[in-house]
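Hi support team,

I submitted a single chain yesterday and got back a structure, but I'm not sure I'm reading the token output correctly. Could someone confirm the output below corresponds to the sequence I sent? I've pasted both exactly as they appear in my results page.

Thanks,
R.
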Amino acid sequence: MNNTELFDLTDKVAVVTGAGGGLGLEFAITLAEAGANIVCVDLDLESARRTTTIVEGFGRKAHALPCDVADEEQVRSTIRDAHSRFGRIDILVNNAGIADPAPAPVGQYDSVNWHRVIDIDLHGVFYFCNETLPFMEQQGSGKIINIASMWGLVGGSSVFPIPAYNAAKGAVINLTREIGLEYATKNIQVNALCPGFYRTRVGPFDDREFLSAVTGITPMGRIAEAEEIRGPALFLASAASNFMTGQTLVTDGGALAQ
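Hi R., thanks for writing in. Yes, this is the structure output for that exact sequence:
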């Protein structure tokens, strides 16, 4: 297999959650450029449809589906719709997530916000894996990329207290390890992608104080543009990562190396 073939996704079918914008849009574009057909899933159906238009511009098939990833029945319906439409699911990118709505130390943290973050950032990942894995096992192959965070590996309170987000992303990383082991002999690779600070709508990057804080802990001295996630995503979605499962790939500008 040559280098071009390693990264070729021609006629693969990918489901991308949170595909309406931010990193999710970048994942959809990356996989489509490599040849995959994309099921664009987002709570906001109109934003998912805008992504399908971009995907179709690469000559690929695309389908938009609305879904609240925290609703197990909606997730079940979404995956069954995707499989019924395309006949297979080769790649699942569990990208949909939210940040802590109101960062605060645990002793002052609103439990309503806690449950909402855990429901979306952790339960949503489980629901999509739970519904997709039987189809992947049936077809004898698959790639799952769970989008975690560098904050799933270390605490973030030196910058701001985000206990629910940290807890959810840490759990996603260990869930990834567990699923990777469970399906290691099934030709299904499951890995976590752990970004540092990328310019998306998740963070207040227009706030000078926030931007100064996050660049200050990033050795490269800058935040990443959203499109810089494309290379790591393509690696994990393609044959290039066939001997890698249950692992975490950190893309954080050197932050965790300190």
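A quick pointer for reading it: The beta strands are 13-17, 37-42, 62-66, 91-94, 142-147, 188-195, 198-199, 224-225, 248-251. Let us know if anything else looks off.

Best,
Support desk
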